[in-house]
Design goal:
The structure holds 2 protein chains of 2 kinds.
Chain A (H helix, E strand, L loop, with lengths): L1 E6 L19 H4 L2 E5 L8 H10 L7 E4 L10 H10 L3 E2 L3 E7 L2 E8 L5 E2 L2 E2 L6 H21 L6 E6 L22 H8 L5 E4 L8 E3 L5 E4 L2 H4 L4 E5 L1
Helix pairs in contact in A: 2-3, 4-5
Chain B lengths: L4 H20 L3 E4 H7 L9 E5 L4 H10 L3 E3 L6 E6 L2 E6 L9 H6 L1 E5 L2 E5 L2 H10 L9 H10 L5 H7 L3 H12 L5 H4 L6 H14 L9 E5 L2 E8 L2 H14 L4 E8 L8 E4 L1
Parallel strand pairs in B: 2-5, 9-10
Antiparallel strand pairs in B: 1-2, 3-4, 4-5, 6-7, 8-9
The chains are: A alpha/beta, B alpha+beta.
Bound molecules: fe (ii) ion (2 copies).
The site of one fe (ii) ion (FE2) has 8 residues of chain A, from loops.
Chain lengths: 236, 272
């Protein structure tokens, strides 16, 4: 059995310093690893990234993260990732990592993902260059996840994204904006591999539980959805 | 009713002036703070103001002199003044270059003030007159504000807006709206249609660096703006309200926001 703690959308900045870490005291007893599903900052500044890095520094379990759209807001995602890595957080974008846990090896494939929508209510790479690049970014993001999943050799595999792979976990959000909250290409990439659990954030008003068309469990771990410091999921 | 001595003196003067005008057939109406008092506002501590026609101003002053008041030289050309002991009586005839008209005096209604019955200027006319008197050097809103609050049911606000058009009067109407004394339709604040207003505010809440909140629901119904959704801490909630107030001047912002809680008990879910 491998236990995974996961949370997204902590949206930390100077004002939030220390508020979240206070809730992490029981982490060692709860889980083998902590996954962060993006939107770690408010505006994606280096200063906010430092708050995040300090909030998650020196925890008793490994921390693996992807960035979210808020972490891109200051056009400095690389710098944000660098600050986190300097404090020992593994930041993934189109890559995977394997964490050795007492219950076995956990593979984590991470990608931010992107919007685009779900079958039947979905944008296409057609028309204006802005529309094409919007959809192309979503395709590349899903491709990144696929690439990250493929070579993972592990006992259990988790797909970690910021955007949602399915509509199930968006229930509660206005249906009109579903297309901005995720992309079915992420689910397709997940279903193409042997994945045990998919976790994402971004949909603050969504619902925790869903599944991909292929039957993989999806959990929306956005902090406002959880109402608790992190979700804990036992695999195997 | 018992009044403090100063008010008592002013009421005595008021009676004397009204009696003198009635005896000599000078058309007049009580206006200003005491006019408002007659219509239900708290008693004024300022001058006793009467409206008279411009052509009657000199005669009215003579009538008051005959009744024992002491005419005073006024530097202003829109009123004449007389003293009754310590009490100053203003006879206003051409406030802000719009002369008092027979129609205004005809609209005045006889009301009881203390023990005397005398014509009191209509509430709308009275407020318009006060607002017209606002200038760069005399723009204290506290008097008109007390009047507006007390008389709000009696005032035709559409006429106030149409007839008192100075920047001071317009600013005063915006203030009244912000204080909830009048609705937006009378404040002169032009609103964008609610659908656009909601859209713009929602985008502003995401794009403004103070908030960067994407999940705030904005509903606009008339003058009312309802904000719902969750923010991560109380300070953020204040910021959202701050941005909303800035972007939606003249509308009432209703805070239905909640602060995200993450103090629920951690429990493990076994995926089998
Ligand atoms: Fe978020
Ligand atoms: Fe997000």
């Amino acid at each position: 059995m491998i236990t995974v703690a996961a949370v997204g959308d902590v949206h930390l900045d100077e004002e939030m310093r220390g508020r979240y870490r206070r809730r992490l005291g029981g982490l060692a007893g709860d889980a083998d690893v902590l996954l962060l599903a993006g939107d770690l900052t408010k505006h994606g500044t280096v200063e906010e990234a430092r708050v995040v890095a300090e909030e998650f520094r020196g925890l008793p379990v490994p921390v693996v993260a992807v960035l979210g759209n808020h972490d891109y807001q200051s056009d400095a995602p690389d710098a944000v990732a660098e600050v986190l890595r300097a404090e020992g957080v593994t930041v993934l974008e189109g890559e995977g990592t394997v964490v050795d846990c007492p219950g076995g090896r956990l593979g984590v494939a991470g990608a931010k993902g992107f919007a685009m929508g779900f079958p039947g209510r979905c944008a296409s790479e057609f028309g204006e260059p802005e529309m094409k690049s919007f959809v192309r970014h979503s395709r590349e993001a899903a491709e990144g996840l696929r690439r990250a999943l493929k070579p993972l050799e592990a006992d259990a595999v988790v797909a970690l994204t910021h955007y949602s792979p399915v509509e199930d976990t968006l229930a509660g959000e206005p249906p009109e904006i579903f297309a901005f909250l995720g992309s079915y290409l992420l689910a397709e990439a997940i279903d193409a591999s042997d994945v045990d659990l998919a976790v994402h954030g971004h949909a603050h008003r969504g619902t925790e539980c869903g599944t991909t068309p292929g039957g993989v469990r999806v959990r929306n771990v956005a902090l406002p959805v959880l109402g608790r410091p992190y979700g804990v999921y036992g695999i195997g | 009713m018992e009044y403090e001595p100063h008010i008592r003196d002013m009421l005595t003067t008021l009676k004397r002036v009204a009696g003198a005008f009635k005896a000599d057939g000078v058309p007049f109406a009580l206006t200003g703070g005491f006019g408002a008092f007659a219509r239900g506002a708290p008693p004024s501590r300022h001058d006793v103001d009467f409206a008279v026609l411009p052509e009657d101003a000199e005669r009215a002053l003579e009538v008051l002199a005959k009744a024992g008041l002491r005419p005073v030289d006024a530097v202003e050309d829109w009123l004449v003044k007389a003293h009754d002991g310590d009490v100053l009586v203003d006879l206003i005839h051409s406030p802000a270059d719009s002369p008092v008209t027979p129609a205004q005096l005809a609209r005045a209604t006889p009301l009881q003030v203390d023990s005397v019955r005398l014509p009191v200027m209509e509430a709308t006319d009275l407020l318009v007159m006060r607002l017209r008197a606002l200038t760069e050097h005399e723009c204290d809103f506290s008097g008109p504000l007390a009047t507006a609050r007390a008389l709000r049911e009696q005032v035709d606000w559409g006429r106030v807006r149409a007839e008192a058009g100075s920047p001071y009067a317009r600013a005063f109407l915006v203030l009244l709206h912000q204080l909830g004394v009048v609705g937006a339709e009378h404040s002169g604040v032009r609103h964008e249609p609610p659908q656009y207003a909601a859209g713009h505010l929602q985008q502003a809440l995401a794009e403004d660096p103070r908030t960067a909140e994407q999940g705030i629901r904005v509903r606009v119904a008339g003058d009312d703006v309802y904000l719902s959704g969750s923010v991560s801490c109380p300070r953020r909630r204040d910021r959202v309200l701050e941005v909303a107030r800035e972007r939606m001047p003249g509308r009432r912002i209703h805070d239905e926001l909640s602060v995200v809680r993450f103090d629920g008990p951690v429990r493990e879910e076994r995926l089998t």
